């Protein structure tokens, strides 16, 4: 499964979870959705770790890329959608992307895939907090895409053209979200900054709420597996209040078991209490220099003690202490319309002084057009 290239052919083949994890550890960071442990979390899919090998390199240096593939089976047919969430982890700066993606497609087709879906970890645009704040105040600007970016990466945008030339098609987004992972995230850069600098970069409301929580006596601690039930109780309350379908407790227990067995501090649970009452609870995931706020919950009672701000500040501080260069608050919608309830989430995150980032989005490659079209129609009906 190789393809000719002036840079030398690459071979794609399965690798063990241990080989995959060793590669992840050699990188500055990859998405936690691309760690071997994530296959155990998503146990309704069939997981496979694959690697890219360059035979022209010395022995021991031939593994040059890796990915976690999740296979979702079609109903009643042994054919699969091969999904690489926020992956693969390959050299996206290589102008010859075919040498990476063509052998990958051949391997996945050999595994019974009728189509491939991936989310290249490539950032195309960035908007600073001040830019977003001004844009929200401007009634003419309805979405982030209407706002000129502070940073525009032409090479990253060139990747989109290269993918299209290879037959890949971008999945349309609605409000910045596709069927899988968010296209727009909010991130707080930490590299080269200390706690004072990060705190000074937050808006006045955030700083005031952090101080208010401390003055009220809010205590933030780390929890263990036994505390997941308490977290889930607050999470379920949040789901009912904010009108989303909560995941079951078993999902978080599985996530804990899989991720902490890979690295002891891969997943950390935080609990904020006021006078013994749990007022907020969150989870943070870290892979190398990237830390993610993955799940959060808060009670309706005692919201005035600002447990959510206190718990976020503790996670940010812990991420910095662990050497993280990015604190990722995950997805935001694209809307800037103040009449849209989703804009409140953006305003909360903008208060940290970070930046909105746009990724390349998720892309599909049909390998069997009839089956791919049938699957697409099936998912739309769902």
UniProtKB/TrEMBL annotation:
The keyword Cell wall biogenesis/degradation applies. SUPFAM superfamilies: Acyl-CoA N-acyltransferases (Nat). One of its GO terms (biological process) is cell wall organization. PROSITE patterns: FEMABX. The keyword Acyltransferase applies. Pfam families: FemAB. Keywords: Acyltransferase, Cell shape, Cell wall biogenesis/degradation, Peptidoglycan synthesis, Transferase. Belongs to the FemABX family. This is Peptidoglycan bridge formation glycyltransferase FemA/FemB family protein.
């Amino acid at each position: 499964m190789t393809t000719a290239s002036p840079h030398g052919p690459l071979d794609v083949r399965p690798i063990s979870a241990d080989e995959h994890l060793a590669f992840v550890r050699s990188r500055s960071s990859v998405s936690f959705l691309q760690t071997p442990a994530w296959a155990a979390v998503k146990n309704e899919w069939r997981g496979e770790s694959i690697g890219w090998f360059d035979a022209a390199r010395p022995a021991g240096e031939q593994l040059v890329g890796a990915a976690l593939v999740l296979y979702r089976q079609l109903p009643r047919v042994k054919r699969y959608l091969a999904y690489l969430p926020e992956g693969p982890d390959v050299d996206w700066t290589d102008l010859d992307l075919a040498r990476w993606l063509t052998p990958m497609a051949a391997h996945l087709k050999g595994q019974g895939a009728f189509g491939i879906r991936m989310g290249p970890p490539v950032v195309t645009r960035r908007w600073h907090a001040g830019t977003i704040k001004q844009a929200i105040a401007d009634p003419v600007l309805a979405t982030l895409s209407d706002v000129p970016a502070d940073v525009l990466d032409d090479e990253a945008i060139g990747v989109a053209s290269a993918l299209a030339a290879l037959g890949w098609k971008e999945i349309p987004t609605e409000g910045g979200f596709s069927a899988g992972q968010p296209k727009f995230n909010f991130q707080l850069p930490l590299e080269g900054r200390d706690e004072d600098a990060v705190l000074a970069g937050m808006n006045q409301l955030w700083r005031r709420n952090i101080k208010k929580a401390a003055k009220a006596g809010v205590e933030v601690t780390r929890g263990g597996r036994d505390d997941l039930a308490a977290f889930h109780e607050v999470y379920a309350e949040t789901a009912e209040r904010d009108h989303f379908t909560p995941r079951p407790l078993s999902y978080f227990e599985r996530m804990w078991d899989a991720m902490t067995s890979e690295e002891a501090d891969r997943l950390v649970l935080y609990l904020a209490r006021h006078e013994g009452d749990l007022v907020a609870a969150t989870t943070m995931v870290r892979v190398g220099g990237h830390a993610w706020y993955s799940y959060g919950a808060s009670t309706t009672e005692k919201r005035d003690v600002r447990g959510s701000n206190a718990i976020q500040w503790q996670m940010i501080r812990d991420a910095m202490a662990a050497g993280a260069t990015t604190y990722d608050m995950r997805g935001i919608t694209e809307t800037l319309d103040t009449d849209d309830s989703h804009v409140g989430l953006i305003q909360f995150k903008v208060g940290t002084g970070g930046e909105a980032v746009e990724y390349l989005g998720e892309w599909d490659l049909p390998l069997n057009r009839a089956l791919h079209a049938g699957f697409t129609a099936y998912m739309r009906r769902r």
